[in-house]
Amino acid sequence: MEPKIGIVICGFQNNRQFVTNSYIQSIRYSKGLPLLLPLVRSDRLLAEYIQLCDGFLFCGGGDITPLLFGQEPRNGIGQTDITLDLFQIRLMKKILKTKKPLFAICRGMQVFNVACGGTICQDTALKSGTVFNHMQHSDLRSDVSHRITTRSGSRLKHCIGSSLYVNSFHHQIIETVGQGLTACAHAPDKTIEAVELSEHPFAIGVQWHPECMYRTSPQMRELFGEFIFRAAS
């Protein structure tokens, strides 16, 4: 039986909760059963989500409300939705207690970090030193933007190798890494590109968008495949 993967909603559009199709297809092509998890405010229903699903995918989306990681809003902050933020962080914390596989992408990685007590730099322009443009402008979202290097001994390196070119669609970056997390990939400008929870069977967050590279990159297919394999175990 295919493992049931709960795909947490990306956000709202015109009073509609949505998930971008590429996340759904990447789970399906990896032999998982995609189930969409809408925003709810009930702890009982969150518990049912967790009981129902074998693994969880947190997707990309908008910015996180800075108050939730102990900061005031600064220049460069984008649109936020504190109701969505609170829902995703609450669900993330509950999932992490179960040891069920977790894969977090772009905003999802930042939610992962905040749920573990980390902080976010609200815009790369606020970062000291030289940080290149992480919001690429290309014809296709599958096009690559920059190189990343993975940490020796990390689960991520086991999946995708020591170095890889990835796409990039974000203007916020991890500032302080959350408790228990390890930065397991970096861009050439030292930006954290991935984190993983060391004492967890599979809890990985990546800053790029592997779902957009699924058809073109064997490494991205391997990453999704490992996630589904762990969920099926």
UniProtKB/TrEMBL annotation:
GO terms for molecular function: gamma-glutamyl-gamma-aminobutyrate hydrolase activity. One of its GO terms (biological process) is polyamine catabolic process. It holds the Pfam family Peptidase_C26. InterPro entries: Class_I_gatase-like (IPR029062), Peptidase_C26 (IPR011697), PuuD-like (IPR044668). Keywords: Hydrolase. One of its GO terms (cellular component) is cytosol. Transmembrane segments: none annotated. PANTHER family: GLUTAMINE AMIDOTRANSFERASE PB2B2.05-RELATED. This is Gamma-glutamyl-gamma-aminobutyrate hydrolase family protein. It comes from Mediterraneibacter hominis.
